[in-house]
Design goal:
This protein has 11 helices and no strands. The chain is mainly α.
């Protein structure tokens, strides 16, 4: 069952909204000068700048994470939304995705093999590191979430999850309990901007 959104401000519109935001950023300098003719207008200008900067910074971060993880910006945006509902930040999400990929590698390392904590964690959840290696970062996350959900949030399941992703995963346990399909349902609650729009917004932060 999908978790209902607790967010009050989320990008849920169509892509025209994001395109319009990019255009507003490019023209903001001239507009803000005209708005500075009074105290009220000045406050409005400051608020507008903060909103625009926040939007640009958000999508610049999404673009960078997508590039580093080899994911689409759309997937990162939607996963960040799901993580936010769980009470985790986009930085924590990035850390979990990065750590999961690293731990799969550790479990397959012939020098560590089945003796590594990660390998034991995967085994305890009934996961095969070789199969996980073939998956994309988001699919790896879904697979681990399915296995953790199947554990029934048991003490053993939680311990295994922490062997793989360390204690930082605690913030994301409510999300992992949804399982892969549940996470996908949450991700489908919002519409993401196109790759091109994210790139345009990210460039404005350079």
């Amino acid at each position: 069952m999908a978790v209902k959104s607790k967010l009050e401000t989320t990008f849920t519109g169509n892509d025209k909204h994001f395109q319009a935001t990019a255009n507003r950023v490019q023209k903001s300098g001239a507009r803000l000068k005209k708005m500075a003719s009074g105290i009220g207008a000045a406050f409005a200008a400051v608020g507008g700048v903060m909103l625009i900067r926040g939007t640009v910074t958000k999508f610049d971060r999404i673009d960078k994470i997508a590039t580093r993880m080899g994911m689409s910006a759309e997937k990162v945006h939607k996963l960040a939304y799901a993580a936010k509902i769980s009470g985790a930040s986009i930085e924590q999400l990035q850390g979990i995705l990065t750590r999961l990929r690293r731990r799969v590698g550790e479990a397959l390392d012939p020098l560590q093999g089945s003796t590594s904590a990660a390998a034991k964690g995967f085994q305890a959840l009934g996961l095969n590191a070789k199969e996980l290696e073939k998956l994309s970062p988001e699919e790896q996350l879904f697979a681990v979430a399915d296995a953790f959900k199947a554990s029934g949030n048991s003490a053993e399941g939680t311990a295994a999850l922490m062997k793989i992703l360390d204690t930082e995963v605690r913030e994301l346990i409510p999300l992992f309990l949804q399982g892969g399909e549940g996470i996908k349902q949450i991700m489908n609650e919002i519409t993401s901007p196109t790759e091109q729009t994210v790139k345009e917004l990210a460039r404005l932060n350079d």
